[in-house]
Amino acid sequence: MIRVLIADDQPLVRRGLALILGPDPEFQVVGEAEDGARAVALAGELRPDVVVMDIRMPVLDGVQATAELARTLPDVRVLALSTFDMDEYVVAALRAGAYGFLPKDVSPEELGAAVRIVHAGEAAVAPRLLTRLLSAYVRTPAPARAAAAAAVPPDMTPREREIWQLLATGLDNAEIAADLDISVSTVKNHITGIFGKLGVRDRAQAVVAAYESGLVAAGNGSG
Predict the structure, then answer these.
(1) Which residue, 20, 23, 18, 19, is CA-closest to 48?
(2) Are strands 27-33 and 100-103 parallel, antiparallel or unpaired?
(3) Which residues of the chain have pLDDT under 70?
(4) Alpha helices in the chain (DSSP H)
(5) CA-CA distance, 203 to 178, in Å (whole number)?
(6) 3-state class (DSSP) for residue 28
(7) Beta bridge partners of residue 50, listed in sequence order
């Protein structure tokens, strides 16, 4: 059973999410929080597997709450929610440690599937949707972070760099394998090496790193 904490400042949204997830025997809604600070506190008490986290909340917003959970409770995985699927706060949430994000108008089936994916430690973000979001919001680096922008690791091989670039443009493993005429298992092995060299956890963070390193320019991705 996957233990879920719901964090949203709107009572009707919290209740709706609980009614969607609650009847499924695979999920147990263990608590509800009305702001980010309360979400962090309840997560410490209840130790849920997944926090379904609204991005915009009072007291402590979803991005800050996600960062705090990633720092203090790394085993608690965050699935961020946003009213809009093109929202700059979503990129911030991914950088803060969220395992994925969904727009709030997804179907109940999509929500349940995303919670399962996040619980399994994968990124619940459609690659092309993520690419569109990054293309919209990861443009010229802000001066404050330009000097600290991610760099291409010097030990990354040309093949790894090629696969990283294809991954960042929204291709899945099978599409990368077909494009390069190699096996899917070979792609998976390369991606594991890429994650290790970048120091990232999943595809979402690898795509963010690709934009921040300049490997992929905003607007060059698919979608």
Answers:
(1) 18
(2) unpaired
(3) 84-88, 126-151, 217-223
(4) 11-21, 36-46, 62-72, 88-96, 108-119, 127-137, 143-146, 158-168, 173-180, 184-198, 203-213
(5) 19
(6) strand
(7) 4, 77
Cβ proximity of 38 and 83 under 8 Å: no
Q: What is the reported pLDDT for 86?
A: 52
Beta bridge partners of 51: 5, 78
For 34, other C-beta atoms within 10 Å of its C-beta total 17
DSSP 8-class letter at 148: T
Pairing type for strands 2-7 and 27-33 reads: parallel
User: What are the structure tokens assigned to 199, written together?
Assistant: 């120091």
> Which pLDDT does position 140 carry in this prediction?
44
Structure tokens at 68: 């705090």
Q: What is the pLDDT of residues 135-190, one digit of tens each?
A: 655 544 454 344 434 567 888 999 999 999 998 877 888 899 999 999 999 999 99
This prediction has a pTM of 0.69
* Residue 164: closest CA among 138, 128, 191, 188: 191
Structure tokens at 19: 């009614």
**Residue tagged 């569109």 (tokens):** 132
Indicate if the alpha-carbon torsion angle 37, 52, 4, 195 is positive or negative: negative
